[in-house]
Amino acid sequence: xxxxxxxxxxxxxxxxxxxxxxLLPIYWMVGMSFRTNQEILSNFTLxxxxxxxxxxxxxxxxxxWYMGYVNSLIYVCINMVISIAVALPAAYAxxxxxxxxxxxxxxxxxxxxxxxxxxxxxxxxxxxxTLGLMDTHLAVALAHLLFNVPLAVxxxxxxxxxxxxxxxxxxxxxxxxxxxxxxxxxxPLIKSGVGVAAFFCFMFSWVELLLARTLTxxxxxxxxxxxxxxxxxxxxxxxxxAAAGTLTIVPGAIVIWFVRHxxxxxxxxxxx
Amino acid sequence: MSVVVKPVNQKAWWLIVPVxxxxxxxxxxxxxxxxxxxxxxxxxxxxxxxxxxxxxxxIMRNEDLLSALLRQLMFSMxxxxxxxxxxxxxxxxxxxxxxxxxxxxxxxxxxxxxxxxVVGTIWQIFGRTDIGLLGNLLVGLGLDxxxxxxxxxxxxxxxxxxxxxxxxxxxxxxxxGLRAIPEAYYQAASIDGAxxxxxxxxxxxxxxxGVLMIAVLLRFMDSFMIYTEPFVLTGGGPGSSTTFLSxxxxxxxxxxxxxxxxxxxxxxYFLIILLFCFLLYNWMMRVGTQDKGGER
Amino acid sequence: MARIELDxxxxxxxxPHSEADYALLPLQITFEDGGAYALLGPxxxxxxxxxxxxxxxxxxxxxxxxxDGRDRTHDSPQARNIAQVFQFPVIYDTMTVGENLAFxxxxxxxxxxxxxxxxxxxxxxxxxxxxxxxxxANLPADAKQKISLGRGLVRPDVSAVLFDEPLTxxxxxxxxxxRRKLKQIHQELGLxxxxxxxxxIEAMTFxxxxxxxxxxxxxxxxxxxxxxxxxxxxxxxxxxxSPGMNLVPVHVHPDGTLQLQGQGHGQGHGQVQGPSLAHTDxxxxxxxxxxxxxxxxxxxxAAEPQPGSVAAEVTRVRHMGISQLLSAVAGGHEFxxxxxxxxxxxxxxxxxxxxxxxxxxxxxQNEELIS
Lengths: 272, 296, 371
Fold this sequence. Notes:
With 296 residues, chain B is mainly alpha-helical. Chain B has two domains: 31-61 and 256-286, no CATH class; 69-247, MetI-like fold. Chain B has helices spanning 13-38, 54-61, 63-93, 99-109, 116-126, 133-140, 151-179, 183-191, 196-207, 209-224, 228-234, 245-255, 259-286; strands at residues 40-44, 47-50. Chain B has a two-stranded antiparallel ribbon. The B-C interface holds B 3-4, 182, 184-185, 187-188, 190-195, 198, 202-203, 206-207, 288-296 and C 55, 57, 76-78, 82-84, 86-88, 90, 92-96, 98-99, 102-104, 107-108, 132-135, 137-138, 148, 151-152.
């Protein structure tokens, strides 16, 4: 913050109000996870009357539950890495060069997100069965590229276009090879874009249910699919669902913690 | 994409190839399948009759569909009108550095990480007047609140849930965009004697155009295709007040088992989204990039 | 236009312990009203810190900044009436060139016809008149830097214009064009200009007075000619000039003779005694180890031994267009000397005698100039 900008109090007030708003349902969910189903459905109290860890115990001891988290983490991370790796050069091309069909392809990328994934269910099912990749983490990771890669390309391109071309040119004049320039000069400048793109790839892949459920059965069953178990003929297992939901937040919070410096730092034009 | 003049370089295609490979195979095949289904009437296994645009015409005549479409449009407009400004305001209010920035980032991002069916489920309880915090709060304020009984309140509750769930997406994008603005711009503005509003209008907002466009398109698309959260919360009711377009499509495809009309509808659905996004994209690209004529 | 006095030290750390913790060691400098100054030095020497302290973007941890005698240490850049041009063009993308230039004046609520007058005047000075209605964002980098500069100049009472390596992102062909423009503006408007750069050519062509900085202190301040002829510190000798001064260690014997301290593989301890020089200079030099400095521009050589010369072997002759650069080794040290392009240069391997003692030769003890 520059020396002349004071912290306006109206904004802090607004921020606090929003944070409260954001946390209320989460607080409620966490509260539910520490209650029994009976208590959830009978009383309204701000704190659990009979504090219980039963739901957590169930999830953390039953392999079919906690493996769900592990499986999700595996394919989400694979997807995140591939998405960003593939999107970086493409975003650079869109940002810096003009070529035949560039605007059309750029827009076409986004159209992949314009249909409900349900449309892809059957073709994907057939495709991955043919490839023998059913019920593997790789299958889900690849399938999720459908919507994550366009998003990553769009976000990265936006940030790359914010960097003046002169920086590229100055680097070439100074004798940098392209890989060295890209890794040591360019990437640090678009840090916040990379951070936010990575987080969004993680997030959208993490919460996706339809494709993940269709392409897996036992070995790679993600947590989102496992959680649907809580709806059964005997009714809804609210407490377990709440506990599972609370635990779901943890990996994502860790990811954001790791990329926080990327997102929050941004563009710093070297000091001499 | 920016409007700066860029050098022509057809070899840049090589950089795009991996992306195309990842995405193309998944996009083209289903599209062809859907088009295939949309122009046929499948009477039985192996027996299909080409019916051309009959399904399309039938859909256009369907009144329920048109009202669902209208409902959906209103919803998406409301979503954009609330979430975009709110998200930007939030991004402007979030701390820029230090441990506070990290803590706020994590808290803001939490709602995005919850699986959508869980979101709907939690709000189900949350909104109940007997056992939920929100329900109790509203009743305590004297409101006769029931999201399962009152259509308007149901619609508003779905909207509130969406705002809670997705505003952080806009906020995170805007926040990252703000962080990408070099300090020198603020320094120059300070030297030029610019007011806080001028800084927002002439530096921050223009520099956020890229991320805001992504946010607008994403929120429009996702809200237009919204399914899980309202379905879990209200099931589409009361009546059809919260039956948005994709639920309508699912009912048609799954419930009535009519593949032909469903496929035709999918195409129309896709085309509507495509059209709006295309319009929004072009509008946002054009805003503030023309050479202004006139004297000064 | 203002006279700026600095009497300060600055550390970015809250509790600095040693000299290394200071970005700027205690200094006292005066920038006279209307002067053109350059702060020259390598990365990390503190020049940008000093510039930011002058402009008010950084407050010195100790000391004062005075503008025309008034203490402005805690005043904002706006209050000091400073203008600053940054490393990369900072313009308001959504505005036209004219609106960009008018912006600082509109914020001051100047009447619009006055604004228009002022904008046209400055635009004319910067040769931007034809582009006033174009969007600033679509112009090339050099035009954008001119706009940045213009926004600073447009205020009639601007106290000083500060430049932070403004030509960094400009095309090399256009750099000299902009430099010429800056000089012209200085002559016309008579403003105090302070220019930070690591490029000595920029500094030497732009400024009347150059401050060479290293590791947080001003090593020497003087006109470009002074810095070239009489560098007061080995750092200045080495930094200024391309290539810099030839610097070699010598030893002054009690009898007055100078001996080149060679380096190289010697048997036994101590340094290998290199060839010696008979001193003819008549200068009085203290006994002991010194550093001898002579610029390649003044280093002559001959085929036969001369008074004050030392034998050397030519290693390389390079054609540099308008001159030739000769490299020779004596006593393990490499010397460089300039020759005119058309002169006959000795071939590599030839023996020549480098005349080290010359009117331009400088002697340094502990890096400071003594003669």
